[in-house]
Amino acid sequence: MEFKAQHIQKLHNNQGFDFDETALQLFRYQAQHNAIYKEYLQFLRVQPDQVTQLHQIPFLPIEFFKTHQVVTNAVEPEIIFYSSGTTQQTRSRHFVASLAWYNQVTENIFNQFYGPLQDYVVLALLPSYLEQGGSSLVAMVDYFVKRTGQDEEGFYLNNHHKLLQSIKQARQRGKKILLIGVSYALLDWADKLKGREDFSGVTIMETGGMKGRRREMIREELHAQLMAGFGIKDGIHSEYGMTELLSQGYSLGDGIFHPGYTMRILLRDLNDPFDIGPHHRSGGINIIDLANVDSCAFIETKDIGKLHQNHTFEVLGRFDNSDIRGCNLLVL
Length: 332
Known about the structure:
By secondary structure, this protein is α/β, with parallel strands linked by helices.
């Protein structure tokens, strides 16, 4: 428990800690105290004390979150987040020991790229997530709404008229406005608007996901339709996160994601999941999430991506139809 407290304090302060060394320390901790991850490493015959570089760390396939309780030190969860999915699909579960810690991390990362939440009014179109329940995205946005201290409601389901009135009210009060929504819900509204309303100064952020409501499309087409419908030219922002993560990445309007200070992307060969390293410029996305101290910080996702400078990245597509919130649903 002493390691956990020190680790959290280091991330909480965010005072220029060494990411690589912190990740390696967390790896050794979870290799010993996370039963599922420990068994996985033993199956691979990996000796944790011989792992000295990030690309040597084995990443736990994300499917384990559907079939196992992935926790470190058998923590008692305060809340369980569930992935989206149909009644025929098994939903991933993330057993979160502290909702306050999740809230702190999400706020720190948002502030890193957008500035203090108190400067914003946060408005959300997330109908499918609200309907299914247990969404980490809804929990994050709900916390953001409370932190802003705004008078406006946060969630609007399909009440576009009331949402538009809230945007006008926030603008009159001189507040920055963040409209965050699942892709299909934003598209539904954009189709109705056809550029007839003023959304200048509104940051429109899509979280990915058609949820079977509309056809899938590449990001460029999605963003072009959203920009036309909302009548904006500054670009559409995006959020990248998953049920299995506590950290997020953000695209600031150009399709390139910037990982939060607790997140790092490594790429693996598309055919060999254990071939990981800086020599890959595109490949399967592996994520180190330093905030995931109570579950597993090293996750092999089903996304395909491309790395750019300073650890920024693109999401190019997916291996299959895995349920991922926050990444753009793209067609290769």
